[in-house]
Amino acid sequence: MRIDAFLADSAEVVQGKIYALGAGWNTIFVRNFPAVHRRLAVASTVHVPFTATNASHKFELKLVTEDGADHRIGLRADAEGNAVPVYAMGGEFTLGRPPLLVDGDEQVACFAFTIDGMRFDEPGMFSWVISVDGEEQARLPMRVQQAQQTS
After folding, report:
1. For the chain, how many structural domains are there in total?
2. For the segment 73-86, what is each residue's pLDDT rounded down to a tens digit?
3. Which of 42, 51, 91, 105 is deepest in the core (most CB within 10 A)?
4. Distance between CA 55 and CA 51 in Å, rounded?
5. pLDDT at residue number 22
6. Other beta carbons less than 10 A from residue 117's beta carbon
7. What is the pTM of this model?
8. What is the pLDDT of residue 102?
């Protein structure tokens, strides 16, 4: 499978298409650390070959540091209401094989994940890792750095 992905300020999937605002960047500039980035989105298209249609696939998105450690992308409440760290997002998808799909053609699945209030304790290089069926398919680099102070 082939993956295309990008970072944006906001993105959503509507009727099989990605709609994005503020797309095409790879650096977050912050004033100080620790920093909380208000909102970012990771959008991607998964190009599923003819031979992989009519089958369930697992999509996963996670953020890793330059050392390969998982970076927390958020918090969620557990059954008791306690905050639990979230390190990955995703789910399962299946693309059918329409009658007019020709052997050799591909289907495209679109995904958009919005993350609000992501915390960064220090500057660094990160990578959004996209996996399908447990196999890494793409890495999308993202740098977090302190903005230059002007006098």
Report:
1. 1
2. 998 999 999 999 99
3. 42
4. 9
5. 97
6. 11
7. 0.90
8. 84
Enclosing domain of residue 112: 2-146
Provide the token pair at 91: 């789910």
**128 Cβ partners below 8 Å, 6+ apart?**
5, 7, 42, 61, 62, 63, 139, 140, 141, 142
Residue 96 domain flag: yes
pLDDT digits (tens, 9 = 90+) for 35-68: 999 999 999 999 999 999 999 999 999 999 999 9
CATH of the domain at 84: 2.60.40.2550
In the chain, % of residues over pLDDT 90 = 89
Confirm whether 151 is domain-assigned.
no
Give the Cα separation of 61 and 93 in Å (integer).
14
